[in-house]
Write a structure and sequence with these properties.
single chain; alpha/beta; Rossmann fold; N-(1-d-carboxylethyl)-l-norvaline Dehydrogenase, domain 2; two-stranded antiparallel ribbon; 53% helix; globular
Length: 475
């Protein structure tokens, strides 16, 4: 069989099919494999006229039809399914072929697969893909990491299909080893934080300010045309005007009918766990994970509500005043979420020798991905001044921006706490900021306590060395 296809996909559900159709629209010949014949047929029938798109249930046929070095992407569930596909592929591949895992695999699993396949001459890439189904079809943000030499074969295809921001493709080589999946993991951690922060802003406006869904739609739509412009703010505005067609003849709003229990796929948890291992402080991401976990305990929360009977107090501000304060507070907290995630990438890049290019990370997050926002352009300026900055809060221009918003977040937190509205993520964002900006923290007391009960020693501010005191308990 003559090799005529530029790219192959294993797993042609909606995401896999959309990526292949995107490639085909940009002039590449593509082939997709799936166990289900109906998916293969659906892929071919969805192809644009004049494009070369083939669906098959014969994996050997797909492999034989690919040009060398073969470029094959998997979009299958993380874990054992990825290893099963690799085991199936391995006898059919040749030295120099490239295999890409485009799912949300744990980065340590990706590194193990790289180490396993490298001696066999197979290049393995872990690639984060963000943007959902529409992004896959019309332009995702992609985060590939692996063998830099092999990336040259993927680059033309990925750059062609990626989202574009300021004329640049939202894809770039993310670094050595499992860097691609690590960057995507942290992307998702930031996503968790931003979503939790938005939900707290919603709660303040709705329960504290008495805003209706129509009011909220207007506020979020206006925010999306200003400094808070972002994908998450945009879709939130749309959510508030979506009617519930499944009940009450579409006369009520769908958001009010959705149960307050949040799901998760684990990437936020992985981000928190790895940050603790390094260690790097990312409390707003941690709190977002914790609040999703707490939301699951609905029955206990209902019982606690009956037991304590918290009365939500209305916030005594005009709608315009409250909206302006929450807007500034949200911008401040978004920066904290990004700052924490980027500081984790900076530390991981060094600790794991991934060589993650932070300026490129910011660039590829500007379009196609879930956390794209206007705020990312400020980080452009930060890294243009210093590409190795360990934390964006150390930049002078960023300091100026945050000083303008700082008072608003303090006021919003005070109002929310007084109204008994939970604002754990916003509180963690301000707490992180205050701690990071403190040249002296009360951890000297913690060190004294540790030395008192466990002889863990301490350092002094007035001389070098490690010290221990024989502390005494007085009667």
């Amino acid at each position: 069989m003559e090799a005529t296809f530029d790219f192959g996909m294993i797993g042609i559900g909606v995401m896999g099919s959309n990526l292949l159709l995107n490639m085909a629209d940009h002039g590449f010949s593509v082939i997709g494999y799936d166990l289900k014949q109906e998916r293969a047929d659906k892929l071919e029938s969805a192809a644009s006229p004049g494009t070369v798109v083939k669906g098959t249930t014969d994996i050997q046929f797909m492999i034989q039809g690919l040009k060398k070095p073969r470029k094959i992407m998997m979009l299958v569930p993380a874990g054992k399914p990825v290893d099963d596909v690799i085991a199936t592929l391995l006898p059919l591949l040749e030295e120099g072929d490239i295999v890409i895992d485009g799912g949300n695999s744990y980065y340590k699993d990706t590194q193990k697969r790289i180490d396993y396949l490298q001696p066999k001459g197979i290049h393995f890439f872990g690639m984060g893909v963000s943007g959902g189904e529409a992004g896959a079809r019309f332009g995702p943000s992609m985060m590939p990491g692996g063998d830099k030499e092999a990336y040259q074969y993927l680059q033309p295809i990925l750059q062609a299909i990626a989202a574009k921001a300021d004329g640049k493709s939202c894809v770039a080589y993310m670094g050595n080893g499992a860097a691609g999946h690590y960057v995507k993991m942290v992307h998702n951690g930031i996503e968790y934080a931003m979503m939790q922060l938005i939900s707290e802003a919603y709660d303040i406006l709705k329960r504290g300010g008495g805003f209706t869904n129509n009011d909220l739609h207007y506020v979020f739509a206006r925010w999306n045309s200003g400094g808070l412009q972002s994908f998450l703010i945009q879709i939130t505005a749309e959510i508030f005007r979506t009617l519930d067609t499944g009940n009450n003849q579409g006369k009520s709003y769908l958001v009010d009918a959705i149960l307050d229990k949040a799901g998760s796929k684990g990437t936020g948890k992985w981000t928190s766990q790895d940050a603790m291992d390094l260690p790097v402080s990312i409390p707003t991401i941690d709190m977002a994970v914790a609040m999703r976990d707490l939301s699951v305990y609905k029955d206990q929360r209902v019982k606690a509500g009956k037991l304590y009977q918290p009365q939500i107090q209305k916030i005594d501000l005009s709608p315009e005043q409250l909206t302006a304060l929450v807007e500034d507070a949200l911008a401040f907290c978004f920066v904290m979420a990004y700052a924490q995630g980027l500081s984790l990438l900076a530390k991981a890049s060094e600790a794991y020798n991934m060589q993650i290019p932070l300026p490129d990370v910011v660039t590829i997050w500007k379009g196609g991905c879930i956390i794209r926002s206007a705020l990312l352009y400020q980080f452009d300026r930060v890294f243009a001044a210093d590409a190795t900055l360990p934390n964006v809060l150390l930049d002078e221009s960023m300091a100026g921006f945050l000083k303008e918003k700082e008072n608003a977040v303090r006021q919003v937190l005070s109002l929310a706490i007084g109204a008994k509205i939970p604002v754990a993520a916003m509180g963690s964002a301000l707490g992180y900021f205050d701690a990071f900006c403190s040249d002296r923290l009360p951890t000297n007391l913690i060190q004294a306590q540790r030395d008192f009960f466990g002889a863990h020693t301490y350092q002094r501010i007035d001389k070098e060395g490690v010290f221990h005191t024989e502390w005494h308990m007085t009667e």
